[in-house]
Design brief:
The chain has about 170 residues and is an alpha+beta fold. About 15% of the residues lie in helices and about 20% in strands. Strand 5 and strand 6 (about 120) form a beta hairpin. It is globular. The two termini are about 20 Å apart.
Length: about 170
Amino acid sequence: MRHPKIIISGIALVAVAAAGGITAASAASTPAASHSGAPTVRTASVSVGGKTETILVNGHGLPLYFYKPDNAARSLVSGALAQQWPPLTSAAPAAAGLSGKITVLMDTHGDQVTYNGHPLYTFADDHADKVTGQGVEDFFVATPGLAAISTSSTSGTAPAAPSAGIGY
């Protein structure tokens, strides 16, 4: 069995060379949003629980998720959970079509990209523009309207996802 993070990292390294730094889980030595100016995070319209919604996706079109227990100061995703839900990392993230704030959280994952304070993740079972992780293990698809959380938040509570469907 292959380690999902290694597979995704391999894809990300190819994408860095080909697309100028768009990564799902890039290696620490890889410059993230480099010379081409390609966005690390953008929006796309996809079906979520049978309803078309505008969500956040990475440069490969993979849906981005937030983990409800996280807070703006720390990702609570580690170990096997991080293998299934790889963090989106980039030393210099770029965004397209977003009104919220993209920043970097320095934590155990390295330069983890956040949107309005929510650390962002992909799902190992997803494909471009296809949401399959909605509601799984307390992860919810990130949308442009995702409310900001502060760094002083300790509860990690986040607003409910736009739809309750699992997507499986």
